[in-house]
Predict the structure.
Amino acid sequence: MRIKLRQVEGFLAAADSLSFSRAAERIGMTQPAFSQLIRDLEAALDVKLFDRSTRRVRITDVGMQLREQMRRGLLEIDNACNNARAITRLKQGQLSLAVLPSLALGLVNDALASFHDSYPEVQLRLREARTPHIAGLLRNYEVDLAVCSRLDANESLLLEHLFDDELVAVLPRGHALSRRRVLQWRQIADEPLIGLQAQADLIRDGFAQNGIDKQAAHEVLNTVTALSMARAGFGVTIVPVIALPELNLRGLVHRPLRGPRPMREICLCRHVDHALSPAAERFRQMLRDMSWRKAGILGDS
């Protein structure tokens, strides 16, 4: 048994007006076509909904019962359609985002704040995570989008380049090397290294390209910890330049590294089978625009 929405609308129009002619006019049908619509509905339900004569239309007891149930059902459909339109207009909905810690405190936070100011009814959910964990969140459909370093090639994920982020050496202001405007990897080879776990591969490659097998004296997870240890004189650390404007650099200086210049590619990622919601698509556009506007800080995009 398949009941059409048009039949429900026609039945409710007739039940309210108790006139097939007025009901037909209300939903834009001819009266003969409307009468056939009601007969088809009664046949599909195998029940009589109206007693009809040449003078009047009377709704049956069964029709009275169905009227209230169908009215509630039609209201639910209207509400669902209104909700869908609200989501499209970003008047409601949600956005879930995974992001690297070094990106969350600057660029992404600024983009989220701007998004929230523009679309306050959309619920935001941020999950800070390392790159390997982010890949799992995307594959399990736990987040809509992720902002992270380039992931390993994977057919289930789509990667969109945002910008290239440089790593720089950070050391105490009074350090002998702080007088240099640019540092070479070999110049910090004998310095104790405060290694950030998230950047370990890039840092290891930088030393390796200079024939240096360098092990970190200290390994930390948090950029704030790395900077605090450098300030206290425990050694030199190497951190993403994008994070520096949001951090306390009191007593510290940062210098670019060359030979090679350490760069990490920052991407916007999503699952290939996950169609972006209107909220996620709008945030994606805002983040890209903000990345381009900050190109002088972030590198080329």
